[in-house]
Amino acid sequence: MRAVVVRPPVPGVAVEEVPAPVLGPGAIRVAVRECGVCGTDHDVADGKYGRAPEGDAYLILGHENLGEVIEVAPEASGFRAGDLVVATVRRGCGICRFCLSGRSDFCETGRFTERGISGAHGYMADEYVEIPPYLVRVDSALTPVAVLLEPLSVVEKAIAQGQAVLDRKEPTPGHSRSAAPRALVAGTGAIGMLAAFALRARGYDVVAVDRHGEDTPAAVLLRRIGAQHTNVSEGLGAVRDSAFDLVIEATGSVALDLHLAEMLGPNGVLVLTGIPDPAATPISVAAGPLFREVVLGNRAIVGSVNANRADFESGLEDLARFESRWPGACASIISARRPLEEVASVLAEHVGGAMKTVLTVRRGSTQGRSGR
Ligand SMILES: [Zn+2]
Ligand SMILES: [Zn+2]
């Protein structure tokens, strides 16, 4: 089968013929339809990160996925040929209490694998094989947006983490909230945009910031869902409001992270999802005033990574909610669809203002082609 192959730490990516995976007992064979490309894929392809599976000389790239079940082993249950599925990414260490209870996103040993990233093959290939606990069935009505479910699961977890901290002060008997809660989203890539959608759907007033003007597809889309867009290329001072309840960071810029903490209102929470470059230039900050405000205002800074099955399931509910509230809007987060063969050029080009590029692997039988 065709697969997008990398050999970290050697930089480079190529489409190669590799053996198709063997369908073991209890497993399901999935034909991949689409794979999203994100910053992690760039890092793995650049050799900065990633590891081939034990005993293999290469790693199949790709973790944001949508596929169609094509073969079900006799012992496997719950799925039929033709079902649309999204596979989760992380596989637990098998040792710690979180991995043993299906919450490998909170793994304490770090000895997990991640499909398409570290120690397990990914989804940028004609096929993959997986067992049912790691597959989430998707309603065919969500086909145009389902490849966004994996990045959305990361957002679902991040918001749930922030909300859990915010909820420590609720309910407040006899004093209901007079105004909508307020969120700031930093970054308008797919993660930031999905966060804006999810927060709007939860009743937040949302301000999303990036370093672009008002005419980008992201800015247009934000207005469509009733969120405000602000260009902060001259600094966060351009955001006229402050005192946000929840700030979701999706840029990976450490310099920005520290300033985002200053945007929190009393009792507010900053959730960091962008992964900073460990080699980023050191910066100095006036830590006294910053941490003073954290303490005096009960503010919290929380890191959030990956997601578990529950986050994929709440993501599915959100995708349906987005479609009914803003028909077609979520699909326009996908800036372009390109054939799998073009993966190297997709990874090489960086389009400013683009939200998500998706690689098309196989057209669905419902989209005009059938058979294998
Ligand atoms: Zn990703
Ligand atoms: Zn673990």
Descriptive overview:
With 372 residues, this protein is α/β, with parallel strands linked by helices. The chain has two domains: 177 residues, Quinone Oxidoreductase, Chain A, domain 1; 150 residues, Rossmann fold, CATH 3.40.50. The protein has nine helices and 19 strands. Strands 3, 5, 6, 10, 11, 18 and 19 form a seven-stranded mixed β-sheet that branches. Helix 3 crosses helix 4 and helix 3 crosses helix 8. The structure holds zinc ion (2 copies). One zinc ion binds next to helix 2.
- Domains (count): 2
> Outline, from the CA principal axes?
globular
- In N-to-C order, the SSE pattern is EEEHEEEEHEEEEHEHEHEEHEHEHEHE
Query: What percentage of amino acids are in beta strands?
Result: 25-35%
What's the overall average pLDDT, rounded? 94
TL;DR of this structure?
This protein has 372 residues and is of the alpha/beta class. 24% of the residues lie in helices and 27% in strands.
Keywords:
seven-stranded mixed sheet; alpha/beta; 372 residues; 2 domains; Quinone Oxidoreductase, Chain A, domain 1; Rossmann fold; six-stranded parallel sheet; 9 helices; disordered C terminus
